[in-house]
Activator of Hsp90 ATPase 1-like protein (Mycolicibacterium chitae), 161 residues
Amino acid sequence: MPVIDAKHDIDNLTLTITAHFAAPVQRIWQIYADPRQLEKIWGPPTFPATVVQHDLTAGSRTTYYMTGPDGEKYGGYWDVTAVDEPNSFAFDDGFADADLNPDPSMPVSKCVYTFAEHDGGTHATYASTFASAEALQQVLDMGVVEGSTSAINQIDALLAA
């Protein structure tokens, strides 16, 4: 499994997941840049993602929804704030309503995804910062660590396909 560490720090309002992939940085980058590949790994296996709009450039918005086992749809969005292809990108990650508009009642995290060459593969760091301890705790209670870990771990199967 690619994920080697997942830790949260309530005092610093952070959640950081680290993974290693047996693929070059450019290949990992393409998974996040291509909406059809992104939807294969963004949601956990039981909540597959459908990417509606995606352009991995600063100033753009990605919209998507995940479909749960019961058929219910859960919307989300990224507001992309910075891109350094193929090394990193940053975005505000939030929840969305049924029309894929931001839901202001839910937490937003500031995310930075970084990819670096490591032993012939890629070392990936997925770092998220929250506005408050309550916001971080809310997503922890929703299962963000388990969901994100299982989603990221799907990358190996995509690479093998």
